[in-house]
Amino acid sequence: MPWRQRCWSPGRKAPWHWPIVWQFRACSFPARVGSDLFAAPLCRTGWSMIDTLAGVSGDPVHWAISLVLVGIWLLICWLCLRKPAEQSIDKAECLVVFASQTGHAEDIARATHARIAAGGRPVQLLEADCLTPELLDAARKIFFILSTTGDGDAPDNARAFEQRVLSADADLSGKRVLLLGLGDRRYSDFCGFALRVWNWAERCGAQLRVPLVPVDDLAPADLARWDQHLGEEGYPPVPAAEDRGQSWQVIERKQVADAAFGPEGEQTSDGLYRLAIKPEAGGRPEWDIGDLFELETPDGHFRDYSIANLPGADELLLFVRRVVEGGVAGRGSGLLTSIEPAASNQAASNHAGSNFTGRIRQHRSFRPPAGQGSLLAVGAGSGWAGLRPHIAQAIAQGRRCWLVFGEREAGQAEQLFAEMREWHEDGRLQRLDLVLSRGGGPYVQTLLEDKAREVADFLDGEGCVVLCGRLAMGEASLAVLRASLGAEWLEQAQADGRLRHDFY
Ligand SMILES: Cc1cc2nc3c(=O)[nH]c(=O)nc-3n(C[C@H](O)[C@H](O)[C@H](O)COP(=O)(O)O)c2cc1C
């Protein structure tokens, strides 16, 4: 995606004249070349209007009408031909900069922005990739809200920031900087990216009067410290605009894959479940492709699950791996998969313990890939949930789709495969490769490596890739694609929005 489009400041409306401008610009390929090509005909047309209207009579009314028409004409010409602004984000003395992979940091940044804006001071909210030296220069106070992904990596919307801004020294002297890092202590590089930004800010002479606020797995106590710092900065709490969730019920549950075991033979999962859930209060839930269902556990933890069906249905479809750690079922997955399905709304409300709290959460970095090219979908296990709506939409758009999907063993997973096979047999999927890893079988990344030539032909320049599943599978698959398609292809696809991934 071009910089200009991505860095349109969140919440800011496009100017009213954009439709006109783009109609003119759309006639040409590159906008600037198009504008230049238009220049001569536009000017000639304006001149001939004066010539025709005023020249046919010496009547002052005709002159006045012609001048008004020419004025309008000149305005349109100016809007079409002027150089696009280099910077579409206003400089502000206070910036709220976020980096977020699955949307939590973005939600907190929006709330922080709303809280500061409530005080009446100008404040700008922006993704880290949109932060330029000019914006930094103009700012007096900067609030960074940064999550860490991968293996201590920056989220996708902060990769350019890391390359462009963090690699160089800036003069941050006299600027007050506060930093909130979202992470999870189960990862070895806890809040790694936020720490790198912290070190950079310190090196550049920023005023860092409070230490980095690290948040472990969205722990309420950690978030409360951020709230407290905002209060001390003179921004009192404002009523939360956001709905923290509603009551939901499970209406269908089916096990679709067997238990899984780790390399040491320890059980890591009790199986994969296909669940249909709906709001207890009724009404049709609203979501977009890529969005997540966020479960709030009774002890205040949050767990995300990809929504596996296309928007427009009355219920959400989830594929939940029932995680087992040290013989104990996972907080979120254990809860969701143990709920008995309700036969009806009435039955559900009578069924003690059958309801749970959750909400739909936007996941902007996992929206359908841009463009109209062929779609290569790669995933394993519960990653099917993330891939499924992307594939369904691409099929509906008449795009060619190739699914490369892995599970541990056939067994109950045949039920999961049945749908994929059906889509393949009736021609919706051009190509389907199912791999089973148990007993030394190939992994999805091995298959991608073996079929490197065919993958390159299938994607043919403008193709798109969607990946979803465990981090190890995802990173290994990306590494294979980087080797076979070239780092440049992958970076371009990422920049164009033709590469989307959701790893966990
Ligand atoms: C694939 C993946 C990789 C992660 N890697 C790390 C990591 O290396 N270090 C860390 O502290 N947290 C890591 N996390 C935890 C996230 O930072 C944490 O869940 C955070 O709340 C996500 O915020 P976001 O939704 O704004 O991206 C990872 C999470 C995921 C899903």
Automatic annotation (TrEMBL):
Residues 94-231 form the Flavodoxin-like domain. InterPro entries: FAD-bd_FR_type, Flavdoxin-like, Flavodoxin/NO_synth, Flavoprotein-like_sf, FNR_nucleotide-bd, Riboflavin_synthase-like_b-brl. SUPFAM superfamilies: Ferredoxin reductase-like, C-terminal NADP-linked domain, Flavoproteins, Riboflavin synthase domain-like. One of its GO terms (cellular component) is cytosol. It is an enzyme of class 1 (oxidoreductase). The keyword Electron transport applies. One of its GO terms (molecular function) is NADPH-hemoprotein reductase activity. Residues 243-376 form the FAD-binding FR-type domain. It holds the Pfam family Flavodoxin_1. This is NADPH--hemoprotein reductase.
